[in-house]
Amino acid sequence: MAFKTDIEIAREADKRPIQEIGAKLDIPSEHLLPFGHDKAKVSQELVAEVRGRKRGKLILVTAINPTPAGEGKTTTTVGLGDGLNAIGKRAAICIREASLGPNFGMKGGAAGGGYAQVVPMEDMNLHFTGDFHAITSAHNLLSAMIDNHIYWGNELEIDERRITWRRVMDMNDRALRDMVISLGGVSNGFARQTGFDITVASEVMAILCLASDLEDLQRRLGDIVVAYKRDKTPIYCRDIGAEGAMTVLLKDAMQPNLVQTLENNPAFVHGGPFANIAHGCNSVVATQTALGLADYVVTEAGFGADLGAEKFFNIKCRKAGLTPSVAVIVATVRAMKMNGGVAKAELNAENVEAVQKGCPNLGRHIENVKAFGVPVVVAINHFHSDTDAEVQAVKDYVASLGSEAILCRHWAEGSAGVTELATRVAEIADGDWSQFAPLYGDDMPLFEKIETIARRIYRADEVLADAKIRSQLKDWAAAGYGNLPICMAKTQYSFSTDPNLRGAPINHSVPVREVRLSAGAGFIVVICGEIMTMPGLPRKPAAESIRFNAEGVIEGLF
């Protein structure tokens, strides 16, 4: 059976002018700043105006740990938003922007798939409205100003061995992870070791996604700790004097982007921190704006619930005062079979036993989300190779845990294939059953917060951290940062730090390699295992297949 590719489907979309999409949420056209005919920025004035309105119901879409079989979390987010509109609800979706790194690498884009997509797909997965370029520029402006300050006499007495601010670019490039800069003599400054992270791991990205307005943005940027003196007292961005210019560069990037689904429903696409190395949620500004305009807002958190949902609850909801009404956990029969030990090449063959064997991974995520007091529904994202017996095995397993699983065919059928899920999700949201609370309190010591996540979410026995890391955490607590939440940087493929350990492992350890203070964003980044904040390209990058075809249109994006 031949299927159209995502980009072929997107190219056939009957897109409406962006003013028509805004009108569905009663956004006056003067508050839409168009980028062409099919996308627009929402003005800061409207963002401020809707902030005090009664909020709609917030629905989180999360997933099991990703596998090579594919889960379709963003596809389900888009499909559910369309499904809610199809049953007569006033709904919007909120998702993240795509990073160029994975687009040209292995993961692909971030616009959904099949007949549950956000368009214009090509624009969304490439430069879009330039937000990531602005974030990259603002970040690197600060980097340049730090080295420039040292070159012109170092009045702040920065210890060049203790500069913590690196550089960023929105591309996977392992060669830039560790490097020496300022070589070539006196005129080029003082040689030192540094490196690049990917833009989505930048604290500037996190700050933009958590800031409430331009004033808050500038304050947070000023709070960034960029280096230390020899006596270990911190040097802030405001000491360098960069926060004003950085805010100017980010002025337009702070405004949420409005686009549309294939079914012409409103979609806010804004911000893009990864969930494995950052906090994995779209911007607070976009989410709060959508909640002030729509009765139901469907948003997603990156990768599996052990990363994205945990950070959504413990960081974003805590910081922004959000209360999710219901969570949808996306799973597939194919992924259950992979967790049950089936090789990718054998996934098309029926194997109910492997499905049952792999279901504990899903079960762990259900238990974890319920631990936050949020009701759970499982969306089984349908693939054509799924059999009735395999689907029923997932439904029976989920029912045994006191939840329900609903088969969804939105990839092939759009909103018509997801109305059952939409109806049930709306019922739960309207029932106000959520008793949401973060997993730990602000006053818990930093290392205990790390242990709480490791034990309660990952089911680890212990956290391994040397004396230097423990001492650093104590120093930050003494400096007034002890109330910050934790942002775990860990592989997305497993509950453990071993990407090859699938299922629901227990009796494992979580090794902490490094901790980083993100004082402006307002969290502590804890880097575990072999996770990298600058990814590399795979052996055969997707970029090799992206090109213009003979008709002059882009092909190869997915």
Structural overview:
This protein is an alpha/beta fold and 558 residues long. It folds into three domains: 6-129 and 253-430, Rossmann fold (3-Layer(aba) Sandwich); 132-249, Domain 2, N(10)-formyltetrahydrofolate synthetase; 446-528, Roll (Formyltetrahydrofolate synthetase, domain 3). It has 20 helices and 25 strands. Helix 4 crosses helix 18 (419-430), helix 7 packs across helix 8 (203-210) and helix 7 (131-151) runs antiparallel to helix 11. The model has no long low-confidence stretch (mean pLDDT 94).
Question: Characteristics of this structure?
Answer:
alpha/beta, Formyltetrahydrofolate synthetase, domain 3, 35% helix, 12-stranded mixed sheet, 20% strand, 20 helices, Rossmann fold, 558 residues, 25 strands, single chain, 3 domains, Domain 2, N(10)-formyltetrahydrofolate synthetase, globular
